[in-house]
């Protein structure tokens, strides 16, 4: 493991991509093919797993996922929404927050600009992480 917390999607190496989720890998591959992709970054899977562990979310997520197969569609949606909300409400460590803040400043300084970013000024006051495909162990 290379111990990175964040990976720049503009300069990600194949080694970096081993630590990234599927969405980040797809974005990097699109960029490598020459498709127009805005600048960005992702939290590595190990850093995301650490975030889940620090907030004691893994037992809740596993228990909820075990219930899902037995529930009707409407209840599944509610359970998944509960997982997402728990992740979004969990506090981010100072180290991760500072890394995200630095990367956000770099991304916003890009000449192309950014069309969409999930870290708004309001959310940065109470930072959280939203899942994009990182796996649970």
Shape: globular
Largest sheet: 2 strands, antiparallel
Low-confidence stretches: 111-128, 131-137
Helix and strand run: EHHEHHHHH
The CATH class assignment of the largest domain is Alpha Beta
Question: Explain this structure to me?
Answer:
There is one protein chain. The protein has helices at 14-17, 22-32, 45-54, 58-68, 73-89, 94-108, 121-125, and strands at residues 6-8, 41-43. The chain starts with 5 loop residues before the first strand and ends in a 12-residue tail after the last helix. The longest helix is centred in the middle third of the chain and has 17 residues, at 73-89. Helix content is 53%, strand content 4%. Helix 4 packs antiparallel against helix 5 (73-89). The chain has a two-stranded antiparallel ribbon with strand order 1-2. It folds into two domains: 1-52 and 92-137, Dna Ligase, domain 1, CATH 3.30.1490; 56-89, no CATH class. Residues 111-128 and 131-137 have low confidence and may be disordered. The protein is globular. It is built from seven helices and two strands. The protein is mainly alpha-helical and 137 residues long.
Features:
Dna Ligase, domain 1, 4% strand, 2 domains, mainly alpha, two-stranded antiparallel ribbon, disordered C terminus, 137 residues
What's the gist of this structure?
With 137 residues, this protein is mainly alpha-helical. It has 7 helices and 2 strands, in the order βααβααααα. It folds into 2 domains: 98 residues, Dna Ligase, domain 1 (2-Layer Sandwich); 34 residues, no CATH class.
């Amino acid at each position: 493991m290379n111990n990175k917390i964040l990976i720049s999607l503009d300069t990600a190496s194949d080694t970096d991509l081993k630590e990234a989720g599927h969405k980040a890998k797809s974005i990097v591959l699109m960029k490598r093919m020459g498709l127009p992709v805005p600048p960005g970054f992702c939290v590595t899977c190990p850093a995301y797993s650490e975030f889940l562990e620090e907030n004691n979310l893994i037992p809740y997520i596993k228990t909820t996922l075990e219930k899902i197969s037995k529930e009707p569609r409407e209840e599944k949606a509610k359970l998944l929404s509960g997982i997402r909300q728990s992740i979004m409400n969990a506090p981010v460590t100072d180290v991760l927050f500072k890394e995200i803040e630095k990367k956000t400043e770099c991304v916003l300084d890009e000449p192309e600009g950014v069309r969409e970013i999930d870290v708004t000024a309001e959310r940065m006051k109470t930072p959280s992480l939203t899942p994009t495909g990182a796996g649970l162990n």
